[in-house]
């Protein structure tokens, strides 16, 4: 069964990367949540997509320059709609606690490309183990050095290589990086590429698929996971 990953939660309907977006995604039938991890100045792991808070909050500046206490005061809902005023930037810990008693996988995307957060991989993996969630998590990143680090820290937590352009022989590259999965932009995939990846036993979780015809196409190809802003639409197709 294909995993229905809610991209930043049910971000088609609610402010992305907020607890409300995650909670509503579960209500809509998602079987996975995809989210983004940054780190505050005082070392707290937080869930926000951008390096800066400008787009999705009423604050200004880089996440790395905020202490968590100040970051937690920002409004992360009003930019999307006035009805979501007061939504906060959650922590990794909050999401893990929420997911603990639910049958879902969490895909943490480590945002260590533009800003190199010191020991973000170690901190994230330690937090995952503290909550006994190591078997229900996959770590992805566009920074593939970060994924190699993750595998050195923990061989058992799955990793997925994010990429947005045509990668030559991605199944071979995944083996070289030691990754369990490939997380390609859906435009980069076709039937032959999927076939080769699957033959090597590598998981394929593609992003960001919002069109129902593409959802059906990838399910028919037999990929493992679809990352979407609309988990309700995907759930409807999966449920038949």
Automatic annotation (TrEMBL):
One Pfam annotation, family name?
Answer: GDPD
Q: Which GO terms describe its molecular function?
A: phosphoric diester hydrolase activity
Tell me which residues make up the GP-PDE domain: 2-238
Name of the protein in its database record: Glycerophosphoryl diester phosphodiesterase
**GO terms (BP aspect):** lipid metabolic process
Write down the InterPro entries for this protein, in alphabetical order.
Answer: GP_PDE_dom, PLC-like_Pdiesterase_TIM-brl
Superkingdom of the organism of origin: Bacteria
